[in-house]
Amino acid sequence: MRAVINWLFLTALSLWIGSIGFITLVLAPALRAHFSEEQFYQTANVLLPISFQLGLILGFVTLLISLVRTFRAERPKRLLKWVSALLFIMLSLTIFGSYGLLPQMQALESGAEQVRLYNYTQGISLLNLFFGLLSLLFISMDVRLLPGSPTRTRGYSLRF
């Protein structure tokens, strides 16, 4: 059961980080290069809510599993607490972007205010990408993902 939960956690987190990276670093610059400014912001008004809704779903799944893993861990929880804190920050930023910035952005027709709000959503996405990659780094440093069992003298053995 633990392997399934770990798989679900890593899959959801990877999908979340991957979707943020794809939309922010690949799709948005490509759309900006091929469309006029008005068409680009109309397209962004369609794509960004989908991105943030996906982030909300995957964020709730990853944060819930992370909290359960943190509270059920028998070993030191320091890295697990950091991962949970980073995921909480990511989810908070996603909620703010989804329910704070996007409705304001969609209410505007065009102009400097829409550009400013779009830049804020991109900033939120870049922060989420950074925090997500940092949480993956902490997860990779978590010794509970290593195979084998701990020994008293030499750390972890690689017995399967």
Automatic annotation (TrEMBL):
<keyword id="KW-0472">Membrane</keyword>
<protein>
    <recommendedName>
        <fullName>TMEM205-like domain-containing protein</fullName>
    </recommendedName>
</protein>
<feature type="transmembrane region" description="Helical">
    <location>
        <begin position="79"/>
        <end position="100"/>
    </location>
</feature>
<dbReference type="GO" id="GO:0016020">
    <property type="term" value="C:membrane"/>
</dbReference>
<feature type="transmembrane region" description="Helical">
    <location>
        <begin position="46"/>
        <end position="67"/>
    </location>
</feature>
<feature type="transmembrane region" description="Helical">
    <location>
        <begin position="7"/>
        <end position="31"/>
    </location>
</feature>
<dbReference type="Pfam" id="PF13664">
    <property type="entry name" value="DUF4149"/>
</dbReference>
<keyword id="KW-0812">Transmembrane</keyword>
<feature type="transmembrane region" description="Helical">
    <location>
        <begin position="120"/>
        <end position="139"/>
    </location>
</feature>
<keyword id="KW-1133">Transmembrane helix</keyword>
<feature type="domain" description="TMEM205-like">
    <location>
        <begin position="12"/>
        <end position="110"/>
    </location>
</feature>
<dbReference type="InterPro" id="IPR025423">
    <property type="entry name" value="TMEM205-like"/>
</dbReference>
